Amino acid sequence: MRWMAIDMATARPSRRRFLAGAAAAGLAPNLTWADAGNPTYLAAARLPDEIYLLFGLDAEGQVAFEIPLPARGHAAAGHPERPEAVAFARRPGTFAIVLDCTTGAEIARLTAPQDRHFYGHGAFSRDGSRLYTTENDSELGDGRVGIWAADDGYRRVGEVASGGIGPHDILRLPGSDTLVIANGGIDTHPDTGREKLNLPTMQSNLTYLDPSGEVIEQVSLPTEMRLNSIRHLAVHADGTVAFGCQWQGDLAAAPPLVGLHRQGQHPRLLAPPDNAAMNGYVGSVSFSGDHETVAVTAPRGNRAVLFNVNTGDTRKVITSSDICGVAQTNDGLLLTTGTGAIKAAKSDRITEVGHLAGAWDNHLTRIANG
Amino acid sequence: MRRLVLLLFLLPCAALASPAQVVDQALETHILPGFADLESKTKILAELAANSCDPDDAALRDAYHTAFDAWVTVSHLRFGPSEADSRGFALAFWPDPRGTTAKTLGRLIRSADPAINDPDTFRTVSVAARGFYAMERLLYDPAVSAADPEYACRLLRALTVDMAETATLIRQDWIMQHADLMRTPGTADNPYANELEALKALYSALGTGLEFAVDIRMGRPLGTFDRPRPRRAEAWRSGRSLRQISMALDGMEPLAAVLATDHAAIAGALKEAFGSARDAVADVGDPVFATVSDPVGRLKVEILQQRIDYIREIVLGDLGPALGVGQGFNALDGD
Questions:
Q1: Using omega within 30 degrees of 0 as the cis cutoff, is the peptide bond preceding A92 cis?
Q2: Which residues make Cβ contacts (< 8 Å) with residue A356, sequence separation at least 6?
Q3: Is the pLDDT of residue A4 over 80?
Q4: Nearest to A362 among B220, B327, B333 (CB)
Q5: What backbone torsions phi and psi does residue B219 show, to the nearest 5 degrees?
Q6: B-chain residues within 8 Å CB-CB of A276?
Q7: pLDDT tens track for B6-65
Q8: Which end of chain A, N or C, is less surrounded by CB atoms within 10 Å?
Q9: Cβ within 8 Å of B, A 265-324
């Protein structure tokens, strides 16, 4: 039993078993996230013996459910209402799985069309009827946003240009259907795995996209930061977007790796005093629950850095081995590490609230209205 | 998982080398001589090309192979001086799944682009049309130069001059700056905060080089059992695919040995693993991996790939932790 691997498990297998039985008997009710144990977060993890799982965690960081995955996951997206999660394969995967989080059953499988592969992130529309996925047109090397009908068996219903090369993270701005996309700028091809094919010409951007495909706004970093790949995003309730970058150049010359952007303005770049210690690599980004802090993790620097959103000052540096996942709690932040730790950061106190006998994968995703 | 069982004790009186000594030794015995060799071999190539640009000229082809060998033996050192200004790409733009090298060369030749007349201007030409893989097209792919042999001749000369210049810039960067940065970590504006970080850069270069050999140099032609892709082998036009592996092993083994200086069990395992990979190279006996489509031939190529993968396992699983430079699950992810 996998539960044995987790010393904090407080799952409700009996409830889930009941629901599975009810569904089998044709009594399936309209399920909500409450039926999946009210998870607030989704996170993929690797357990010993190359076992990969998707976990639902509750507001306290305790396990609400766990579902096996066929391969290493990257990020997950939770449906705004129904207890459905989309687990994306790690780049350059060609599948994503939609899971019923009450039973663990696979509801649908998204298969990238010919000449497309996923980049590992996706976002739901405000009403939950559409799922948007970042993809690569592997023949042209252009970024795409795939559109899937979440209300109709996750059929593919179209795609639009992402506004750049190598789109990675995608989020929806709060209270709107505008999508914000981190076009990392790096061209890859499935034949060559993760080999970076265009570093000499790469240029990353942040694109605001209407779901119809119209570019609302696009922001690039200055030319001298051309090698800064905008990769991960977080959105603030007021529409501010935080982004984390991965520097592709000489680590000695690494510029700020974190930025805040509001539509119509120039991005504000943030760097802690010891910027070099981040080793040119941000893994995840999140605002805190009180909206006053933006946190980024730097697993290659074994640290998370917390900035004051208003002043841009560094508030705190948390050092922790292989720290990568970060998401907001009601009053602070929750962080996960590749060594299995789940940590809560509240004001300036960091406490370990759980531990997995395995490795948490890159991202901790907060379910939109969970 | 085939993993070494390491002895859990240290000999009490063994004099251990510090990370700084290991870095210094790697610089003196491997890195600096390697890039000096690349500079001299690319210079010889440029001198020969100045005399003859006939693609069938045996001496020119020999010089090309010798210079390419010199590059492959340092190709895993893809950081610092090789990374600055895309120099590594300017010498070696591969893999190229979109065929950009052929397209860009074709465009230069068809438009008789005057960029080739001046080395400084040529340096602004796309990296896809420069370096060893572009030159391979000019020497071994008659279709590329057929449109305008006279221009192709001058293009070939411009390429060799550019390659020699790039090699010189890399070596100068090592001698004048980067070697000292690695030797004196922690100074202002030094990318290496301490000795261990300098050591880690070398360790990462070794790990990445092994990964590139397994996944790209061998993985591309192997494709899948149902769909082998022999034409994706590296430098097959010049018959170098297997030689690339052999040279890459020649380049990485000395670095692995230096890094394992203080860890006799690991050093022994690495020596054995490199030896068995070399035996597998000899067994393949097919210079361009054309036999990946044939079950027996494919098996031999797969065995070679597995042997190199085993070296990587020792490096990641044993050497990294022993040196104290291993990386975490997320740190390694790259996403």
A1: yes
A2: A5, A6, A45, A47, A55, A340, A341, A342
A3: no
A4: B333
A5: -65, -35
A6: 191, 193
A7: 443 444 445 678 899 999 999 999 999 999 999 999 999 999 999 999 999 999 999 999
A8: N
A9: 276-277, 281, 283, 299-300, 302, 321-324
